[in-house]
Design a protein that fits this description.
5-stranded mixed beta sheet; 11 helices; binds S-adenosylmethionine; alpha/beta; single chain
């Protein structure tokens, strides 16, 4: 592949399994003048695995702003550069935003070399709706801020996706139970593409119990996915509808509505309307 001058390539790298890298990514990493890396030692391991000898330059959250000017100069002089993070796609909960936005305003070419990201990898095998989703990055570390952040998305109808670390997975899921309710469906994907890859799927309450009773389930890296509020409501409606169809056969409408409203979140009026429509369909 031809490497273009004066171009920053944003290159995705594996999230665990070193085999998950594209041929284009390898060609670009081997062909550029330098690679901007979040952690040069970590990227050196990837390069050594593929026998790539390109120069590495450190580029992380703490030096991103001061490095931008230098990088703009290198690109203006005709150099080609690649940006990588420790794992997955740069800028996705990783450094690079300040640099890429600056290059766009300066009309300097930025070209993505697509590959793995933990969000899409996790969603693709989650069994939750993926037609629309809402990525929230990392939840705040402090409990009050974390619960506030969860409260803000409690009615979000799209599948929610969070990144989480081993230190906080149990506390975060416990907070999810208290904010979304233990019944809300969720999936957590752990150690994707690695030896101990695991998906825990079920109600938030059941996932919390699995985490608390098996400390191995708290090790590694996590993507937390929570069913959107609409889906929950839909599942709920289905349950109430089934109850209505069953009860309407055997009980007077008022009593049936009372039972449904006791057993679900529907109020008496909503339950009564459901009974009437079930009666109509009976
Ligand atoms: N840029 C990366 C991407 O495109 O996915 C994400 C970087 S972010 C600093 C790291 C977080 O991504 C981890 O804490 C975890 O939540 C998630 N992650 C990365 N690799 C993972 C894996 N193999 N399995 C599960 N989650 C992973």
């Amino acid at each position: 592949m031809d490497i273009e001058q004066s171009t920053l390539y944003v290159v995705s790298t594996p999230i665990g399994n070193l085999g998950d890298i594209t041929q284009r990514a390898l060609d670009v990493l081997a062909g550029v003048d330098a690679i901007l890396a979040e952690d040069t030692r970590r990227t050196a391991q990837l390069l050594s695995h593929y026998n790539i000898k390109s120069k590495l330059v450190s580029f992380h959250d703490h030096n991103e702003r001061e490095r931008v000017e230098q990088i703009v100069q290198w690109l203006s002089e005709g150099q080609s550069l690649a940006l990588v993070s420790d794992a997955g796609t740069p800028l996705i909960s990783d450094p690079g935003y300040v640099l890429v936005s600056e290059l766009r305003t300066k009309n300097i070419k930025v070209s993505p070399i697509p590959g793995v990201s933990a969000i899409v990898t996790a969603l693709s095998a989650s069994g939750l709706p993926t037609d629309r989703f809402c990525f929230e990055g990392f939840l705040p570390a402090k409990p009050t801020q974390r619960r506030n952040a969860l409260e803000r998305v409690v009615k979000e109808p799209r599948t929610l996706v969070f990144y989480e670390s081993s230190h906080r997975i149990e506390d975060s899921i416990a907070d999810c139970v208290s904010v979304f309710g233990g019944e809300r469906k969720a999936v957590i994907a752990r150690e994707l593409t690695k030896r101990f890859e695991t998906f825990l799927s079920g109600s938030l309450e059941s996932i919390l119990i699995k985490l608390q009773t098996d400390s191995n389930q708290q090790k590694g890296e996590f993507v937390v996915m929570i069913a959107g509020a609409e889906l929950q409501q839909h599942a709920f409606d289905e349950k109430a509808e089934m109850l209505a169809k069953e009860l309407v056969e055997h009980l007077p409408p008022k009593l049936a509505a009372q039972i449904i409203s006791n057993l679900t979140e529907l109020n008496k009026k909503q339950a009564y309307e459901l009974i009437l429509s079930a009666k109509g369909n009976a």
